[in-house]
Amino acid sequence: MAEQTVGQVHFSEVDIPTAEVDHREAVTGGLAASVRELVDATIRTTVDDDEIAAVRAELDLLTARLRTAQIPGPAGVRYNREGRSWGWGNAVIGQRNAIAPPLVIVHADDAETAHAEVTLGAAYEGPPGMVHGGVSALLMDQVMGETASQFKRLTMTGTLTLRYLRPLPLGPISIDCRVANEVGRKVFVEASIGNADGIAVEATGVFIIPSWAVMDEETGETEGWRRSAEG
Amino acid sequence: MAEQTVGQVHFSEVDIPTAEVDHREAVTGGLAASVRELVDATIRTTVDDDEIAAVRAELDLLTARLRTAQIPGPAGVRYNREGRSWGWGNAVIGQRNAIAPPLVIVHADDAETAHAEVTLGAAYEGPPGMVHGGVSALLMDQVMGETASQFKRLTMTGTLTLRYLRPLPLGPISIDCRVANEVGRKVFVEASIGNADGIAVEATGVFIIPSWAVMDEETGETEGWRRSAEG
């Protein structure tokens, strides 16, 4: 496994064929989908205390079975030599992370706009029956960061400003995002989250391309990548 | 069960003694703590596909047991006649919500400042090894909203502005928050999230006291509450 460090951020190259990565993602992602159901049931169940204690005891045994072999820390972001990358632990899009809805973000061909739809259930509640305002921020931050990066460069969130127009009920929601402008190493991105009744929260963000990550137009390499490859 | 509607937000009065609420919170909160461990193990496990399938099958049975009796929708925010309130499904502080770390927020006696500490693991990852920028926003939004409300009035997030100063590694983090100013129905709140190395993200927010929720200083009631009590 090779390690590349871009600023303080570590990416790991792993020598696994893409077909194997896809298969593993399906298997472990399926487990995470089941865990999401459990998260929801844990919030909503009204079974009695004894049954909860019994379920918990069996659950702890299942967790112990999963922990008999595990990586020492977080999942990180990995990639293979075929260019497939995966961040299974990401809090918004991580296929193996039951905290993530997970959001599936569709980027337009020109990579300047993006769209995502998902149904948010009981686990994403803030005000009674409503999506937590911070959850709206969390989801938009991910969509905006991806859109700013256009999958060809590293960007970091500089500032994020959110305007809350009205409460957003739990249920089906959608997010739209676009690159509004780009000046030097600053990428200005706009986004909104809402539902069939209209927009609930608007966001603007300034995403920064770190100076050590400005891409060489000819080679597609950044100073940071070159430095780490040389180092 | 009585229902009170403040704007679009529904609060439910439930006739359960506080001791019973506390007991139920401990039992179901314990289950959620176990589910958090499972969420982490699901991200990090390296056991083989067959074992994952076997664990998943047993897990689905446990979820089905919890679902034999459940509330029809999200947990909402409830309160009893003794003044105990609980929002077990809240995405940040919900004791029964495995998505919530959960954050325990300590408000100062004067309710003008608040502090919270928690350790964030693999499930809160954004950039490799780092807290997701949107997770920082999510946690601060909750702390800021509570601090703006001072537990005596309803406030709604108006705007939230976040400045990202540096990446925040997964691990122990702390949040500080204070009311900076108050003008009419606007409450200006400042917050920061960081660790032993200093502040990583700063936030400022404007929280709005809806006109229908301005409290009568003498009775402690709001127009909204009065309207719903009369309605």
UniProtKB/TrEMBL annotation, chains A, B:
It catalyses: decanoyl-CoA + H2O = decanoate + CoA + H(+); (9Z)-octadecenoyl-CoA + H2O = (9Z)-octadecenoate + CoA + H(+); dodecanoyl-CoA + H2O = dodecanoate + CoA + H(+); hexadecanoyl-CoA + H2O = hexadecanoate + CoA + H(+). It is a peripheral membrane protein. GO terms for biological process: fatty acid metabolic process. Its EC number is 3.1.2.2. It holds the Pfam family 4HBT. GO terms for cellular component: cytoplasm; membrane. One of its GO terms (molecular function) is hydrolase activity. Keywords: Apoptosis, Cell membrane, Cell projection, Cytoplasm, Fatty acid metabolism, Hydrolase, Lipid metabolism, Membrane, Transit peptide. It is found in: Cell projection, Ruffle membrane; Cytoplasm; Membrane. InterPro entries: HotDog_dom_sf, THEM4/THEM5_acyl-CoA_thioest, Thioestr_dom. Residues 129-198 form the Thioesterase domain. PANTHER family: ACYL-COENZYME A THIOESTERASE THEM4. Belongs to the THEM4/THEM5 thioesterase family. This is Acyl-coenzyme A thioesterase THEM4. It comes from Nocardioides caeni.
